[in-house]
Amino acid sequence: MNPIVLAVLMLSVLGLAGGAILVLASKFMAVYEDPRIAQVTECLAGANCGGCGYAGCADYAKAIVEQGAPTFKCAPGGDKCADAINKIMGNEQTDRPSMRATVLCSGGENCGKLFDYSGVQSCAAAAAIAGGPSACAYGCLGLGDCTKACKFDAIHVVDGVAVVDREKCTGCTACTAVCPRHVIDMKPIAPQPVVKCSNLDRGAAVNKACKVGCIACGLCVKNCPREAIFLKGNVAVIDYTKCNGCGTCVTKCPKKAIQWVEGSPRSENAPVPMPAVL
Q1: In the prediction, which pLDDT does 201 show?
Q2: Integer Rg of the chain from CA
Q3: Residues 106 and 164: beta-carbon distance below 8 Å
Q4: Separation in Å, CA 185 to CA 109, 179, 182
Q5: If you write DSSP's letter for every residue of 154-194 in order, what string do you get?
Q6: Where are the domains of the chain?
Q7: Largest CA-CA distance found in the chain, in angstroms, rounded
Q8: Quick one: angle between helices 78-89 and 35-43, nearest 10?
Q9: pLDDT tens digit string along 188-202?
Q10: What pLDDT digit, counting tens, does each position of 209-237 carry?
Q11: Total-model pTM
Q12: Would you state the pLDDT for residue 269?
């Protein structure tokens, strides 16, 4: 036989054998991936920001499908993203704790000063110097660490205190993580009263430090028809599992330390908002 023809035949046989081996290997060694992972990944924002607590969007999508991770943790994607994922996953319950940042302080220019601060314009740096320049050792320092941390332009310092734009806020919690005084908390995106004070000192000391601080007078506690507010550590705390949003505490507070966020008071028959972290 012609050596050239023989070589071609041998190469053809080897090629066919190699192809068959590869086909068999792809069948027996294939790693199955749930097609929903790719579908969920497409729903996510694609920012790979890590705000969900996972390495990236693909990792989060895999956790949703394979581990049953919560579907609402993509802050840039928001509620629409969660709805789309729930549809793919066939979840009957599509409610999610739509939380938004809330600053538990109204101090700012209402609060006195211990000294003028001219150092690094950072709340963390200011707090490290004798507890900070503010007369209130618990309130917002107003130097904007939260503003710098927010990727959505949802929080700004106004009159010396951080203020959240809840329309822009996505609930990513970046601001809560950087606040050295821990005065930013996550609250349900619903009309509700909020105690905008974190001062744990007694009333007389609070009066000296801030014009709008909670003095633990107890008027809100005595007048709440639902017994939904109590005093803890010299500051009022609202139990949102009982609160029906009647607004009595807001009107009775003599220091205006309790304020409305996200809308106006509801009627007596309105639904109770989702529980928040106390």
Answers
A1: 95
A2: 28
A3: no
A4: 21, 10, 8
A5: -EEEETTEEEE-TTT-----HHHHH-TT--EEEEESSSEEE
A6: 35-89, 99-261
A7: 110
A8: 160
A9: 776 789 999 999 999
A10: 999 999 999 999 999 999 999 999 999 99
A11: 0.64
A12: 38
pLDDT of residue 263: 45
Asked if 167 and 100 count as a contact pair (C-beta separation under 8 A), the reply is no
pLDDT band per the 50, 70, 90 thresholds, residue 173 = confident
Q: State the chain's mean pLDDT as an integer.
A: 85
Q: How many CA atoms lie within 13 A of 235 on its CB side?
A: 22
Q: CA 184, CA 140: separation in Å to the nearest integer?
A: 9
CATH 3.30.70.20 given to domain 99-261: yes
Provide the H-helix boundaries in the chain.
3-28, 35-43, 57-67, 78-89, 123-127, 145-149, 174-178, 203-209, 219-223, 248-252
What CATH class does 35-89 carry? Answer: mainly alpha
Q: What is the rounded CA–CA span in Å between residue 93 and residue 72?
A: 12
* Burial of 158 per CB tally in 10 Å (0-12, 13-18, 19+): exposed
**Fold: same for 35-89 and 99-261:** no
Q: Which token pair is 126?
A: 């200011």
Helix, strand, or coil here: 102?
strand
96-107 pLDDT, tens digit per residue, is 556 789 999 999
Amino acid 191: pLDDT: 73
Strand bridging mode 258-261 / 235-238: unpaired
Cβ neighbourhood burial of 118 (10 Å; 0-12, 13-18, 19+): exposed
**Residue 93 CB: number of other CB atoms within 10 A?**
6
pLDDT at 196: 95
Cβ(193)–Cβ(273) under 8 Å? no
